[in-house]
Amino acid sequence: MSDNRSPYRFVLPLVVFAAAIFTVTYLARVAFEDTGGSLQVDMPVIPEAGEFLQNERNTIAIFQKASPAVVFVYNIQKQFDPRSWSVSEVSQGSGSGFLWDRSGHIVTNYHVVAGASRIAVTLIDGKTYEAEKIGEEPSKDLAVLKIDLVGTNVTPLGEVIADSSDVIVGQKSIAIGNPFGLDHTLTVGTISALGRSMASIVKDVTIRDMIQTDAAINPGNSGGPLLDSHGRLIGMNTLILRNSTGIGFAVPSNTISRIVGQIIEFGEPVRSGIGVTIASDSLMRRFGIQGQGIMLKEVHSGSPADAAGLRGVGISRNGRVVLGDVIRSIEGETIRTVDDLYHAFDERSAGDEVEIVFYRDGKLYTVKIVLARI
Questions:
Q1: What is the band of 151 on the pLDDT scale with cuts at 50, 70, 90?
Q2: DSSP assignment of 6-61, as one string?
Q3: Which residue range or ranges hold the PDZ domain (predicted)?
Q4: Is 222 assigned a catalytic role?
Q5: How many angstroms separate the CA atoms of 269 and 265, rounded?
Q6: How would DSSP label each residue in 248-299?
Q7: Pick the catalytic residue: 141, 183, 228, 346?
Q8: Beta strand 294-299 pairing with 248-252
Q9: How far apart are the first and last CA of the chain?
Q10: For residues 13 and 70, what is the distance between their CA atoms, to the nearest angstrom?
């Protein structure tokens, strides 16, 4: 039996399909103008009311506005091959980051770029830049990079930052990053808890006031932004609880803003203190002090602690060990660990006066000391 159907019967469906693909591609396309390091993107197209639910429209609008500021960060390290006696560059991992300002500063996690001999950053337009590390704060798992960006119409997330102290449990949270290398991935959830303390890379120091979220965070999300329902930065996605689902943690935006500002201005975090060296855990255990306060091993000459008369570990005239002063509290906050001491000073600035209670020779003493930059 002959087939009388037209040989062009597939043409119309193919034309319709091609038109649909062209439309989707056009709307999703990110345009790059080759202006010597200028990042330009198409303005977002927000769906009309009625096409999507209000919550969907909110999520879409936030992603379209914020995602161009999210970047891919590559950690490249040199590797020696003993067989060929040659050195080559190998990618040791990747993560996320976000544009902080229009000068090309980028914020990411310290662990994303730790040990890198070279750092590369790819923007949403697909262009890759060599990045310079401006500074870092390992105790907050934070690093600041810089690329040669001469202009952009992208809104840096440092310009839309929220006060993280206003975040409340139950509000919407949006994470954007590059999990498993899948660039510009969006996940949505809620703020699950506040004020979490998690171990940092620095021994005996925690990252405090972290934001817990159930928005999916996976390897590669590290360094990416956590946003609120207004598209404002409330945190930087940093870690997940091992072997867990839906338990991720972000460094709060107030910490990010304070540290990033210091690094951009000074090239390093600005720390305040009283000018002392702390005794080791083993020494404090030896004298039964561990958990009861922090003993001073050394008081630096000319420091605020020295001016206030504090003393470190010493040797008496008859050769016996003289214990250093043991700090018990700062401004009414009990000090039991190195972490307590670190955060008591971290929350204050040089020039602030603090009341310190310390133990010496069986008695408690109180002294007021003005913190100095250290």
A1: confident
A2: -TTTTHHHHHHHHHHHHHHHHHH------SSSEE--PPP-PPPBTTB-HHHHHHHH
A3: 263-362
A4: yes
A5: 9
A6: EEEEEHHHHHHHHHHHHHHSS---EE-SEEEPPHHHHHHTT-TTS-EEEEEE
A7: 141
A8: unpaired
A9: 94
A10: 38
> What CATH architecture does domain 159-266 belong to?
Beta Barrel (2.40)
239: tokens are 């870690």
Tokens 């902080």 belong to residue: 100
- Residue 271 CA to residue 81 CA, distance in Å, equals 41
- In this prediction, residue 24 carries a pLDDT of 31
CA gap 124, 368 in Å, rounded: 52
Catalytic residue among 94, 105, 111, 183: 111
In contact, 353 and 370? CB cutoff 8 Å: yes
Give the global pTM: 0.83
Q: How far is CA 41 from CA 34, 48, 151, in A?
A: 12, 21, 12
- For strands 38-39 and 151-152, give the pairing: parallel
Which of 96, 192, 222, 329 is labelled catalytic? 222
CA dihedral 177→147→115→195, nearest 10 degrees, is -50
300 is catalytic: no
> What's the Cα-to-Cα distance from 295 to each of 180, 276, 334, rounded to whole Å?
45, 10, 14
Is 163 a known active-site residue?
A: no
**pLDDT for the residue numbered 23:** 34
Cα–Cα distance measured from residue 305 to residue 347, given in angstroms and rounded to the nearest whole number: 18
Domain 272-373, CATH: 2.30.42.10
User: What counts of helices (H) and strands (E) characterise the chain?
Assistant: 7, 24
| Cα Rg, the chain, nearest whole Å | 27
- What is the rounded CA–CA span in Å between residue 244 and residue 304? 46
CB 191 within 8 A of CB 215: no
245-257 confidence digits (pLDDT tens): 899 999 999 999 9
Give the Å distances, CA to CA, from 18 to 31, 38, 351. Answer: 21, 32, 67
H or E stretch including 340? helix 338-346
Residue type present at position 327: I
